[in-house]
Inverse folding.
């Protein structure tokens, strides 16, 4: 483990996902220390990033979620300082974090994704015409994770409320046609798609509460998909991951409608990393412990 030198685990930050990031970062930190790595916690919300150079950090494990940690800004700063870091680079991080441009890339590459429109707070919108075109919809701020600011709507009034709430997080909001069906995620480790996980929740969709607050969410890993459907979804996820220039590790979310059609939702370049999170769950299914997983991710910086 001496080959890694001094490792800073970046956690916390200033995004709406700070609490989740603290949990991820502390889990990663404890695993690295347990593996014998000289690691310590570093919260950019409390310390100047330039301190990474003054304390002699050799490499960084990024466990920051959301803006400022997952959107390419911290990656660009680390590139400028010449400090190796885990996960995707500037371009992959920025593209994956931007749900709208991610969807546009899926479309351009003819990868299956739900029909959508973009609503800009500065331009205004006609809620009734959107509902007439798409029916029930899912509203998503373009640059938030952990389902923050997301809501479903099936009337013009509900859409107006959902958009006004989403505008608290972003000027541009993605409005997707609602998909009734099953929710899946494919964890990526290097260039390998790990076993597919299905998330089952009674809450209508896999929202913030379903992810972090309640015990009613069920996880099936590996999922009960057929071998053919599993392979199809893993191939789609691998293409989507490469398309946005994501690297190292991450997660691709998708849905399957009632007719068996898969739809890509988004790419996550720094997904949750507690021992109960989805990437560690998929890694465990192929015999990789949480400690081994974080070391393998860190090895990618060598």
């Amino acid at each position: 483990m001496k080959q890694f030198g001094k490792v800073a685990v970046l956690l916390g930050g200033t995004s709406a996902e700070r609490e989740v990031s603290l949990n991820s970062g502390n889990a990663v930190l404890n695993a690295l220390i347990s593996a014998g790595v000289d690691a310590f916690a570093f919260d950019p919300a409390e310390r100047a990033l330039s301190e990474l150079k003054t304390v002699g950090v050799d490499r960084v494990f990024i466990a920051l979620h959301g803006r400022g940690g997952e959107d390419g800004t911290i990656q660009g700063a680390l590139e400028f300082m010449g400090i190796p870091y885990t996960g995707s680079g500037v371009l992959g991080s920025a593209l994956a974090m931007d749900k709208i441009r991610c969807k546009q890339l899926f479309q351009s590459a003819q990868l299956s994704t739900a029909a959508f429109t973009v609503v800009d707070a500065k331009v205004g919108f006609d809620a009734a015409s959107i509902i007439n075109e798409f029916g029930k919809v899912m509203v998503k701020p373009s640059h938030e994770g952990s389902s923050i600011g997301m809501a479903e709507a099936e009337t013009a009034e509900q859409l107006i409320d959902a958009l006004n709430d989403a505008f608290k997080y972003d000027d541009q909001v993605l409005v997707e046609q609602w998909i009734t069906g099953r929710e899946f995620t494919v964890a990526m480790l290097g260039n390998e798609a790990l076993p597919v996980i299905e998330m089952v929740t009674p809450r209508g969709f896999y929202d913030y509460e379903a992810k972090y607050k309640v015990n009613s969410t069920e996880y099936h890993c590996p999922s009960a998909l057929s071998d053919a459907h599993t392979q199809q979804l893993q191939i789609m996820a691998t293409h989507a991951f490469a398309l946005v220039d994501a690297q190292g590790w991450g997660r691709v979310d998708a849905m399957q409608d009632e007719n068996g059609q898969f739809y890509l939702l988004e790419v996550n370049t720094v997904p949750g990393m507690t021992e109960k999170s989805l990437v560690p769950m998929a890694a465990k299914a192929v015999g990789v412990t949480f400690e081994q997983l974080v070391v393998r991710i860190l090895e990618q910086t060598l």
Q: What stands out?
A: The first strand starts at residue 6 and ends at 10.
